[in-house]
Structure formats: C-alpha cells, structure tokens
Specification:
Layout lengths: L1 H57 L2 H10 L4 H31 L4
Helix pairs in contact: 1-3
C-alpha cells in the first residue's frame, strides 16, 4: 500500500508542480509586462508635466490664471488614467484577436 501511495504522490507532485511552475512563470511575465507599461506611461506623463511646468514659468500670470480655468488641479492623474486606458484597450483588442484566431484554427492553449 505504501508503494502505491508513493507512486501516486510522485505523480501528483510532478503533474501539479509542472502546472504550477508554468502558471507562475506566466503570472510573473504578466506582472512584469504590466509594470513596464505602467512605468512607461508614468514616465511619459511626468515628462509631459515637466514640460508644461517649464512652459508655465515663462508665461505671464494672466495665462497661468486662464490655464487654471481650463485644466483641473489633478490633471497629472487624469492624463495617467487616460493613457493607461488607451494602452490597455489596445492590448485587450490584440489579445481578443489572438483568441479568435486560435479559436478559428482549433488551437487550445
């Protein structure tokens, strides 16, 4: 009985260990990809904000006052969300195209 239990445990550990490691690598790559995208968006928006701040220092005060009428105080966060949504929408559409292509080809993965 102990031999059968040992064989069963080895099979289960090998099977679930392989599945877990495959899923762990996929999750790690996904998290890495998302963090790179968010960092790139943040760098882009920060650069944009720096440029806008450098321009505002050379503008007269009346223009800065008008800028406050047009742009909200949380414009940095708004731009970050807008760009993140645009990129995530693009990635989701590409992923759905890939899923549809796999479905039409009969590939399951």
């Amino acid at each position: 009985m102990g031999v059968l239990l040992s064989i069963l445990m080895q099979f289960l550990v090998k099977t679930f260990g392989t599945i877990f490691m495959h899923a762990a690598f996929k999750i790690a790559y996904t998290v890495l990809y998302i963090s790179i995208v968010v960092a790139a968006i943040y760098a882009y928006v920060s650069t944009y904000r720096t440029l806008v701040n450098s321009i505002s220092q050379t503008m007269p005060e009346i223009v800065n006052g008008v800028w406050g009428w047009v742009m909200p105080s949380n414009a940095h966060a708004c731009f970050l969300v807008i760009f993140a949504v645009i990129i995530l929408r693009f990635v989701t559409r590409q992923w759905l195209k890939l899923i549809n292509a796999k479905f039409k080809a009969g590939i399951s993965n």
